[in-house]
Write a structure and sequence with these properties.
nine-stranded mixed sheet; alpha/beta; disordered N terminus; seven-stranded mixed sheet; 26% strand; single chain
């Protein structure tokens, strides 16, 4: 399967039992009641296909194709895996009936102690295909342009507003309701069987951009009995022959308190786009860099300005990478085993949202020699604690309805100016509607770049009508602020 890594999400036994019931029987009960309009299934077709493998000719298994957005992980399609290459001319929009199981009630991406989205007991809901094509791997293709392969891709509509909260679990179901043909002319007839991507070891899910990350790494210091779990994105060129000879920019992306507590490394990458957006292929093509994101076991900094040892340990993690001794790449992968990663010390950046933005401000203030610049989204600090930021390069984004981040940063402005900073703080409030669709940001880009051209080392922009939660879902998508960050170089 080329170099694609498929991630199996582990679930508890009870959750798995619920997944099978929902993906299989629950869906068919809905059909029997006249919902969704699926063909009646025989008893033999009521068990989900799952990930059992070792099947005869025809459909082997299905994969949920997901994308991490500002609103959380969403299902953008299903890949149906056959045993041989499929003739694309035999496919029509009605070749399959597809469904996505909604997330469990009460789930909201990124909120602390949220329920497992896959614990839903709801039946799968029909989702129409906007494109259907063949591919060589389980992944969506740009513009719905197919290629020769044994995967049939059933692609769904993508809402252009990537800030809308997800309502999806990552469980999907599929039924082949029309005959299809292989490239060698064999016909695979329509089948009453309902296939599910749920299996004994978890759901079969491919998430664009996320499967390239290495999760569950550990920074540790035995002398202090200290440790920190993190995930790392390694640039493609580093994984190519000779990549270890190049020095890369480093971005520290710190997520919010919602991914602490009982969270996992996977959740820091899928609950919000705070860290994962920087490793997306299109953004790496524009700004190639190493990205690290810690997974904390508790809130690192609260609203009383108190913080845990994880804050300083995060800086120590950055320092360990700057030592150019990192060689912990997956030893089972030849493209990264035993390679030593080099970081450009002049191009180390910090970003975060909410708790992550508060932590970023603290780290940049305490260790000004480390970071070239910071992108701060909806975070605040006590002015007296961050006076040294007057000499740093910061771009701060808040929403007018954020009653913590906006007023506290307003209090910092005169403190920074008195300490010698040039602060650009326009009275004008920006329009959040100018962020989406992504290919129509030209007006917003002109506005943002105009303020940045004012020459301030600190720029503080606020968007009208956006609250605290909305800022995470929207502001990381502003191309002009990401471009600004990577233009900064520490002298």
């Amino acid at each position: 399967m080329t170099d694609l890594v498929r991630r199996q999400f582990m679930v508890a036994g009870t959750a798995l039992a619920g997944a099978v019931t929902t993906a299989g029987l629950g869906w068919q009960e809905a059909r029997a009641a006249g919902q969704n309009g699926f063909m009646a299934a025989s008893n033999a077709g009521q068990e989900p296909g799952g990930l059992q493998g070792g099947r005869g000719p025809g459909l082997q298994e299905i994969h949920a194709l997901c994308e991490v957005t500002g609103g959380g992980e969403k299902v953008y399609g299903i890949a149906a895996e056959y045993d041989v290459d499929i003739d694309p001319s035999s496919l029509t929009a009605g070749s399959f009936q597809a469904g996505v199981v909604p997330a469990a009630k009460g789930f909201f991406a990124g909120m602390p102690q949220e329920p497992d989205k896959n614990s839903s007991t709801d039946a799968a809901r029909t989702r129409a295909a906007t494109a259907i094509y063949t591919a060589a791997e389980p992944a969506l293709r740009s513009g719905g342009q197919g290629q020769r392969g044994r995967f049939v891709i059933i692609e769904f509509a993508h809402d252009p507003d990537l800030s809308l909260p997800t309502t999806d679990s990552d469980k999907v179901v599929l039924q082949q309701i029309k005959d299809i043909r292989t490239l060698d002319g064999k016909v695979y007839p329509a089948d009453k069987k309902v296939w599910s991507n749920a299996g004994r070891r978890g759901n079969n899910v491919v998430i664009r951009g996320i499967d390239a990350w290495e999760q569950s790494h550990w920074w540790w210091d035995d002398s202090r009995s200290a440790w920190l779990e993190y995930s790392i994105y390694l640039p493609k060129s580093f994984l190519e022959p000779g990549g270890e000879r190049k020095a890369y920019p480093l971005l520290l992306a710190i997520t919010h308190s919602g991914t602490s507590y009982d969270g996992t490394c996977a959740q820091t990458l899928t609950e919000q786009c705070i860290a994962s957006i920087w490793g997306m292929p299109e953004n790496q093509a524009r700004h190639e860099c190493v990205v690290i994101t810690p997974r904390y076991e508790r809130t690192t900094m609260n609203d009383y300005w108190e913080h845990t040892s994880d804050v300083e340990n995060t800086w120590r993690l950055v320092q360990s990478l700057l030592g150019n001794t990192w060689n912990y790449g997956n030893p089972n992968r030849e493209d990264r085993a035993d390679k030593v990663l080099k970081i450009d010390p002049r191009r180390v950046y910090c970003t975060g949202w909410s708790m992550g933005a508060m932590t970023s401000l603290w780290l940049i203030a305490r260790h000004p020699e480390t970071f070239a610049a910071g992108l701060i989204i909806a975070g605040q600090q006590r002015p007296a604690d961050v006076v040294t930021l007057a000499d740093q390069k910061l771009l701060i984004l808040t929403g007018s309805e954020d009653n913590k981040a906006t007023p506290w940063n307003e209090k910092c402005v005169p403190v920074w100016e008195q300490a010698g900073a040039k602060v650009t703080r326009p009275v004008e409030r920006l329009d959040p509607a100018s962020i989406f669709p992504l290919d129509q940001q030209q007006g917003l880009t002109r506005q943002v770049e105009g303020y940045l051209a004012d020459g301030g080392n600190i720029t503080f922009l606020t968007f009208q009508g956006v609250d605290h939660m909305g800022s995470a879902r929207k502001f990381f998508y502003i191309q002009a602020v990401r471009d600004w960050l990577f233009r900064q170089v520490r002298s």
